[in-house]
């Protein structure tokens, strides 16, 4: 049903790796994860944002009899996009956590802005430490800016690449379904016949007009 903060810390360090976590981050995690923190076991596999199982009484209308009951959080399985990971993350979240993520501006911003004491699930602490580590490494990288001419060249190169991919897919479909050039030849022949007929009609109209002028 529940697990303590020490067990959470041990599992977190085991998954992330003690060498991958900065000493400052590890100290913050130890301070923000109390030893007496009790969380429902289901929250280990998602982001619940403080919403956990609640207990209370069901009171009958006739006699006022009380019977114990529980209220479970509304948990949904969603695919959330992470910009730092450049992929979708499939995670179980509560509707309250979804509203918090939308308000923060994304899963990355939510994990970065939420303090450790409010991230009361093992999975949330794991992803928060991982995202912070990746953003710290990203901040140490050098940034290169390109000129507008280079950006235009890159854009044109991407367009040419897309056109080449479309042509390759079209050729592959033609080879797969046994397409031949007869249809294109037929279409070219029919268009040439139509153009010849139109030119003939135009010349006949011109000749008839010239004869009328000569007779007059």
What does this structure look like?
- The chain is α+β, with helices and mostly antiparallel strands and 216 residues long.
- The protein has 7 helices and 7 strands, in the order βααββββββααααα.
- The strands form 3 sheets. The protein has a 3-stranded mixed sheet with strand order 3-7-6.
- It is extended.
Write the topology of this structure.
Layout: E1 2-3, H1 5-16, H2 23-32, E2 39-40, E3 46-47, E4 54-59, E5 66-71, E6 75-82, E7 87-94, H3 95-104, H4 107-113, H5 122-139, H6 148-176, H7 182-215
Parallel strand pairs: 3-7
Antiparallel strand pairs: 1-2, 4-5, 6-7
In short:
With 216 residues, this protein is an alpha+beta fold. 56% of the residues lie in helices and 16% in strands. The radius of gyration is 35 Å and the shape is extended.
